[in-house]
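quick one: alpha-D-glucopyranose bound model?
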Amino acid sequence: MESVGYQIYPKSFLDTNNDGIGDLNGIYKKLPYLKELGINLIWICPFYDSPMDDNGYDVRNFFEVSKDFGTIDDFKRVVKRAKELNIRIILDFVLNHTSDEHPWFIESRTSKTNDKRDYYIWEKGKIKDGIEYPPTNWGSFFGGSAWQKDEQTNMYYMKIFSNKMPDLNWANPTVRKEMINVGKWWLELGIDGFRIDAVSHLDRAPFEDSKLGEGIVLDWHKFSNLPKVHTYLKELNKELFSKYDALTIGEVGGEAPIESALNYSAFDQDELSMVFNFDHNWCNNLHEINDYKDLKTDVLRLKQVFNKWQVAFKDKGWLPLNWLNHDQPRLMSHYGNMKYFNESAKMLATALYLMRGTPFIYQGEEIGMTNYPFTKFSEYRDVSTINQYHNLVNMTEEEKMWHSKKTSRDNPRTPIQWDSSKYAGFSNVKPWINVNPNYVDINVESNLKDKDSIWYHYKKVIDLRLNSIYRETIIYGGYNQIDLNNDKVYIYERKDNNNCLLIINSFAEESIDYNLSNYKIKKVILSNYKDSIINNNNIKLRPFESIVLEVIKNE
Ligand code: GLC
Ligand code: CA
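yep, here:
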């Protein structure tokens, strides 16, 4: 609860041995940088041994570090140093699937009677009019069928992500034991918990066709948020998490409704500490437009989503607060404004990270990194972008490019822009994925030189949250959104017996006169402009102005 987190995608963070790939020593080297920013928790994405079909989410050996990222001793050094700096570490726990190169799968596929057969989900194909089809018409998240035919035994295995990521069979108690051992091993090494990957998918509906459409259909309901997930999580909690007092944050996709999210993470559920949801991630018209210039944030929807989650979790549970992760567009290219770049970047930080919950800043967000300007298919690296590109039909090359680039998971995965030297100080050699050409202007070094930068604003927000006299109010106080129907300004109170704060954020490109008749303004605590224009109870909000006030509410 009293944490501010930072997510690291190791492959893109910092390369120290000049092979073009970020590594654990890169994380080690930058721990003081993160400390300086003020965070006290990091989530590190997978660095386990892997053939890297999905950059490490396809694990070949859960107990080994991939040679791309370093060695287990490198990781132990990271843990030790982080402890000295009072930074807690959580790792990605990938438990829905393994790599097809994992020894369990290599064995499992050899015969129907192999003792690892039931570690995975095997089904016969369906024959219709003499033609064989996969067992169901379910689609996978990365495009194509959720089933892959395996010639060795002439059966299909389930894989809701890539072909190289067969799904584990959680109905098998031995699988659950094995995975508990994996978790134990890492917790024993001294880590503090997990971000639990794809956790909502561990239970599947009966294998019957989805009626949602013709052909292959991505019907999340067939493998998301089904009842037995909770049975498995209660077991994991009892046998693993609770024994280590581990912090656990589940990734619940599949459009988890509030009730379901509460089932995972309410204080009295004994499952997870919190869950990431995605409701606030697509509150704009991105899917409908053909040019970034038409992009528009749906401020009302965003406000409603925030309100819905904050209200539902009041007293009942705790929420993570994040704008994006390694699967989503960069914040500035999504909700930011290019004309008022610094103002909007700072406003977005204030707007989100002073709500009730635990902030998670995604690497590079603290300097306002943007989407990559993809122009060629060959620039993509992400398995999901590539598969889906090939599946796009009835589109010109140009349309396909636009469709892919605006949502591609490669956007947040370009190297961190540390300075303005070649390859942005990420590496001395050409990195595994291109550096965004705007590194000359947007980089850590220039942010650190300018006290007025986005980076310093992030630091101020974190400082206000963790170290100021308002700390208790911001961490534990109530949340109350006001003026819900205003489509330009997002305002909320944070309040306890000692303080009442108003967090006011303009999403508008023009100036707005705002009247705060119900409050007496005591003090301006934080702003993204150099000064404030306040006359009695009237505030002039300039474009994307964001201001935090200490107030007294007229009851
Ligand atoms: C999660 C991860 C994503 C990964 C997938 C499969 O959604 O965030 O990056 O591809 O799980 O492990
Ligand atoms: Ca490296």
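The radius of gyration is 24 Å.
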